[in-house]
Amino acid sequence: NAGVTQTPKFQVLKTGQSMTLQCAQDMNHNSMYWYRQDPGMGLRLIYYSASEGTTDKGEVPNGYNVSRLNKREFSLRLESAAPSQTSVYFCASSPNWRNEKLFFGSGTQLSVL
Amino acid sequence: DAKTTQPNSMESNEEEPVHLPCNHSTISGTDYIHWYRQLPSQGPEYVIHGLTSNVNNRMASLAIAEDRKSSTLILHRATLRDAAVYYCILGTYTDKLIFGTGTRLQVFP
Question: For residues B75 and B63, is the Cβ–Cβ distance under 8 A?
Answer without folding.
Answer: no
